[in-house]
Amino acid sequence: TSTTRIFSGVKPTGHLTLGNYLGAVRQWVESDQHRADALFCVVDLHALTVEHDPARVRRLSRQAATLLLAAGLDPTLCTVFVQSHVDEHTRLSYLLECTAADGEMRRMIQYKEKSARERATGGSVRLSLLTYPVLMAADILAYRADEVPVGDDQAQHVELTRDLAVRFNQRYGQTFTVPRAVLPPVAARVMDLQDPTSKMGKSHAETSGIVYLLDEADVVRKKVMRAVTDSATDVVYDRAERPGVANLLELLAACTGTAPDTLAAGYGSYGALKRDTADAVVELLRPVRERHAELCADPAYVDGVLRDGARRARELARPTVDAAYRAIGL
Ligand code: ADP
C-alpha cells in the first residue's frame, strides 16, 4: 500500500491562461496535492523547443512558479520545482530516445501542428521539437508517477509515455511505473474566446481570445463579453455545432460546479450567459492575482521553495534513473 505518486508540469512559453488553470492547475491544488505524493514542475527545457528569447523564458519560469504557489500549491504538501535544476530528466531522456521510434514521434499531433507553424513563419524546426514528448516521458517516468493530471491536449503524450515505459520494461527489465493520464471532468479543453475551434494556448500570440491568470478584472470581463458565439440566439450545449456557446457554458460550469447542459436550460440569451461567466471567471481569478502580488514581494520565499523542491526531486529521481542505466547494463 504505497501512496500514489503524481507528476505534472507547465511550460514557460507564455503567461499562464485560464485553460492551464481549469485544465490542470486547479486539480493539482484542490485534489492532487492533498491525496497523493505530488510533484509539479515548471518544464523550462521544453520552452527551448520553439523560437524563444532566453531572458523571457527565465522570467516566465519564475512567473509560472510564483503563479503555481499563488494558485494554492502548498510546498508543505507537494514538491514544486524547475526542470532544468534536476539533471536526471535529460539523463533519462537519452535512454528513452533509444527506446522510441522516429515514426511514432512524427505522428504526434502537437509536433505536426507546431512544426507547421514554425515553418509557416519562416523558422527552422528544432530537433528538440520532435523529441520533446520523449523528454516529457522522462519527466514523468523519473518519478515513477502513477498519475499525470493534464488537459486533453496532453493525453497523446501521456499515451506515448506509457508505450515507452512498457517497451523499456519489456526490453531491459522492470524499471518504470506505467502512468495514466487523468483529465478534469469539465473544461479539459478550454477554447480560444475569439476562435472557439482552437484551444486557448499560452504559446499563441496574445489576443483578446485568451484570458491570462494575471489579467485585471475589467480585462477579463471585456474578453468574455466579446467572446465569439454564433448567429443563433438560444442557449444550447452543443460542442460540435455551437463551440463558442459551449465553451462559455463549460467555463461557467467549471466555476460553479453545475453541468453545462443544466446551465444552458437556465439562459434565454447570450448576454446574460456572458455576464454571469465573466463574473464567475473574475471571482475565480481574483485570489490568485492577489496572492501573486504578495509573493512577488517575497522573492526569497519563492527561491527557497524552488531550492527545496529541486533537492527533493533529485533525491526521488536519481535512484530510478540509475536503475534505468543499470537495467541496460551501463
Ligand atoms: P500550453 O499549451 O498553454 O503552452 P502547457 O503545455 O504548458 O500549456 O500545459 C500545461 C497544462 O495545461 C497541461 O496539462 C495542458 O494539458 C493544460 N492545458 C493547456 N491549455 C489548455 C486548455 N486550453 N484547456 C485545458 N487545459 C489546457
UniProtKB/TrEMBL annotation:
The keyword Acyltransferase does not apply. A motif ('KMSKS' region) lies at residues 199-203. GO terms for molecular function: ATP binding; tryptophan-tRNA ligase activity. A motif ('HIGH' region) lies at residues 12-20. ATP binds at residues 11-13, 19-20, 151-153, 190, 199-203. GO terms for biological process: tryptophanyl-tRNA aminoacylation. One of its GO terms (cellular component) is cytosol. Gene3D superfamilies: HUPs, Tyrosyl-Transfer RNA Synthetase. L-tryptophan binds at residue 139. Pfam families: tRNA-synt_1b (PF00579). The keyword Transport does not apply. It catalyses: tRNA(Trp) + L-tryptophan + ATP = L-tryptophyl-tRNA(Trp) + AMP + diphosphate + H(+). Homodimer. Belongs to the class-I aminoacyl-tRNA synthetase family. Catalyzes the attachment of tryptophan to tRNA(Trp). This is Tryptophan--tRNA ligase. It comes from Streptomyces mobaraensis. The lineage of its organism: Bacteria, Bacillati, Actinomycetota, Actinomycetes, Kitasatosporales.
